[in-house]
Fold Sortase B.
Amino acid sequence: MLPLFKTGDYMNMKNVLRKAAVFASMGVIVYASYEITKSYLEYSSGNSTYKSIDEMFVVSADEDETETQTGAQVPSNNENVNDDENDSLTYEGKTNKWVWDYNKLLKVNSDALGYIRQESSRIQYPILQADDNKYYLTHAADKSENPNGAIFADCDCTDGLQAWNCVIFGHNMWTDSMFGSLLNYEKKKYYKKNPTFDIYIGDDHYIYYVFAAYLESAKAASDAYKTAFKSEAEFEEWEKNCLKESLYKTNIETLNAEDRIITLSTCTKNDSSKRFVVQLVRGEQVID
């Protein structure tokens, strides 16, 4: 059988194919680099947005002479009480203070319910709520499109942050931004160092205490995501189950129908069928 190509033609074809493969590989590398750069810029833009929002509340200590006082009683089985020191920030030798102003946030986004802060982590974000649970997966707190998304309450929580159980979602970012740091609560050692969150609801400021952390099914009907209760007895039974689910015991040993719970939820690293939840109970009110 005669060869399909002469030897010279065959060698030329090999060279052409080799060059084509090289150019194709270069094209893939260029495209991948473009996508990586694009993603990085988008994530950086989101981080800048949230930094700008958080800095809206930073004022000179001289401008704010208010005193923090204890309002509502701390749960009896809590040993940790936050004070005003965590709200003091130092810039270029000057002490500045983070002062909550709900009206400022409403001007940025009328969907705002409040704010969640934890000085020991990167969690310092507005809490929003839309008509569905999809919008803020891809939109930042200023409503710009961004892969960071936002921290938002379940649209089914009609009472918002005053609900018996208000579920709040956030992405698990590889940079530990958004709710990426929540997975640190898998370890009790981390909980012991970070037992509280500051939650701002409307004009009010509360200290919330971590009482449970565990893996939960990603299904909406999963117990941790329950937001409607027929009675106080049903709610108290649900609270008991949450305490049992926790990976470890916390300072909170009992809960009751008077409590207000927040369930923080984020994705896990390796299992799309699971979510990691950290549950908080409202403690004392702080008078700013």
Notes: Confidence is low (pLDDT under 50) at residues 1-5, 30-41, 65-86, 88-92. The first helix runs from residue 7 to 55.
